[in-house]
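so the lab meeting is tmrw and i was supposed to have these ready like two days ago... anyway. pasting both below. for each one the top line is the aa sequence and the line under it is the structure tokens. i havent really looked at them closely yet so no promises
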Amino acid sequence: MSVVPPELVLCILEHGYYTSLHTPNYTLLKAAALVCKTWSGPAQTLLFRCATKLEQHNIPIFRAALLSSAGRGTALGECIRILEISIGGTSNGGLGCTPEDFVNLLQACPQLYELALSITEVHEFEEEILKKLKDVGKKVKALTLVQCGLQSPILFQLLKIWNNIQFLKIEKEIAAWPWRTAATPVLRRNVDLEELAQRPSAKVCLYELALSRIPTSDVLNWVLGSSTDSLRILELRDIPGPAHLAILSLHAPRLRSLRFAHYNYHSAALLRLCTALEELVIYHVPTHFPLAPDLPPTIEHLSFRNPNHTYRTTLQPIIKAVDALPSLRVLTCDKNAEQLVGDYEILKAKCRMKGTEVIVSDVPFWVYEDPVKVHRFPRTHSVSNFDAMF
């Protein structure tokens, strides 16, 4: 074992890096780190690559590992590309880290690429903390806001100091006023789009935006204000309203990938505007509103799910969609589609005639893909993306 080259050990461990739920296989990596000295380095490199669910009980251990020594601690900190951490409180009522601890942890992770934050009991960051965060988080390109207060300005604070963010996921509703000042500290409503267009926006040029909850139109307009020429992937897990569609329509012609959790009249209206779309992902089989008539012919990858909570007994909308897409290369579905034997066989036959590859994926729909730029869809959640996350 000890004579196996470290490069080969790393390849072996990368092969088993993900579990069936596409989370890091920490059990495997911890065991591999104890095999011998030759295995320890590569295993620890992967073990510390993704640090998740850091809360009160494990933050001190994590900090101790990173700050234990100038040599070993620094090496481990430089391995970290993904960090998921709670600030203030936690979802189970415990304590997360303080804003000061958060600054110290980011300082110890100089190569951090992706950051997921759950923030409770902290309404906003103080100016002194923001000055420090601006420096220590300058390499972060992917930000996920898992939790924060409805009226918290933290999203605006972070996007103002981290202009390099390209991938943004917002998982909570945000209704704060982006242009808050001492004179207008509270939420304002019914501001027309013409007035919004004249106000300063975020300086980030987003490549991808994923919204589990749709923020107010003020917030959406502020977030996307500098992304007209850069936004390529849009994911909506909530239903957009007319005001949101007016904002998103400015970005639709340049979108390469569009993902919907709900497909309805508003979704179809946005889809029709995506004239250069290469990928469409739908997290159910749409039966109440026709899909095929509104599909751009440029689509190369169509993905759908048939989850148990919205189970459909027909695949006819997807079969018609395959007929309507002349450029379709790949069709992705889940295992539930295989249970509809008659329709599934027809679907496979249609794809076979078109030369379309059919992929049956077991990746849960709640697992996000790696935040990397795409050459050709579908994008994967894979160790092959490691080199792109720097």
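ok protien two:
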Amino acid sequence: MSVEEGGEGRHLPGLPEDILASILSFLPWYDVLRLRIVCQKWNKLLQTTGFRRKWRGRDSHQAPLCFMSSAEFAKEHGISIYNPDNNRWQLCGMNFSPSFYTFTLEDGASFTATDVRVMGAAEGLMLLQVLLPPDLVSEYDERKNTHRARSMEYLLFVMNPVDVSFKKRVPLLPQLRQFDTSRPMGMVWNESSHSHRIIVHYHPQSPDYTFASEWDAHKISTFYSYDLQNNVWDQIAKWPRDRLEILQDPSLTEGGFFCLGSNPFSGLPHRFRVYSQDTPARDANGCSPTDSAESPSSSSVPFLVTDEKLHPSPPHPLYFPILFHRQKETLVAGGRIGSSWSDDEFPPLQVLQEFCVWKLSTPALAPDTSEEAEDDEKDSHVEGRIPKKEWVEIYRMPDHIVESLNGNRLYERFYCAVDRDFLCVASSRRNGAMFDMVNNSWSILPPHERECLSNTVVDGQDFILMMLDMQMLDLHLCEPRIDVIL
């Protein structure tokens, strides 16, 4: 193969571009990215919509990209990405995708943001939350005389991490633009409708969880869902504001909306419940045909409820849990944390004791041929009773993986993320491990560039700031997909 100097020569002598594109379409994603720097024509060819739709190099069991950052970390050091191709960490905006932090508005104006968070990832796409720079806030602030915290607005962008030059802005509803009254919960893939959905929780006059008396029992918070393919907002669920529950891990499956919830003020703060819509009359997107995103008082929008028979509470106590659906099964993953004290160590160590994955299943009952059992079975069918389900442990983290995550002798928190067949567990010190649920195998991720902080001697205020930084971790997995186009 020869390419003339300057990169303006023919790709291959006498080979049409469509034939070349067909040949290159069988390459894996990382080789496609490498070939983009061969010359300008190849770069242009490999980014065309035609080539990306033709791409056949996807590995059905591809290890995902792992994005890791915290709020402070994103500002000062950027978002880190683990690349399974070269098995090392890279820094977004530097040695990975220089244009990662560049965003473009509808009028064509571009800006570089410093406060960026990865809020979710699903099926080859990522959701980014961007706080507006101070010089742009006035363009979107309609209440200039209110408190400064009320004027903080954000934007949402969706991008494919293998093509960060283009980011699609999500058109937020007016009530969803304020940072303190709405919270992007994440992005999910709806297998029923084959679409990406962005979930945003809108809570008017957001309460401070430390002052429960400020809650207005007559206010209702609302969950909105944005269909990325059809550019449509829907209301999918409501929540009474007097219920002191923190809701997380949205999931859409078989026409239903699910999430986990816990009450930080209860005597069991690490006990979680599975919440779902209180009516089965939903479409594939979890919406009613009469739902309207512009009318928050719509009576057709269901409340979130719990059903201990259909979705019993996961095992507890449970730390950093995540709810997800895989192969039409409902699963929960999480760990148990313990503290240990030592005379020569402060603060006390917070260590991971175990990590498991549970599957929700209906227990198999032993056959009972007695007349009483037959009568109970008949009554069950007549009354329409549903047998109570239970959580069954299907995976457990090996001891040597647990020890590797506890390698730093400092107070830590732990986090978990899932993408299809892979699950990642990481500590606030950026130690991580990846779990392949197909092959039931664990692998330890390479050392992160900030692991050196665990050996840094700090005192006083520096120690406090470092501990806060270490606790605010965002962790997301995203499969690299050339063929997912915005």
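from a quick look at the 2nd one: Residues 416 and 425 are 5 Å apart (CA to CA). The two ends are 33 Å apart (CA to CA). will dig more after coffe
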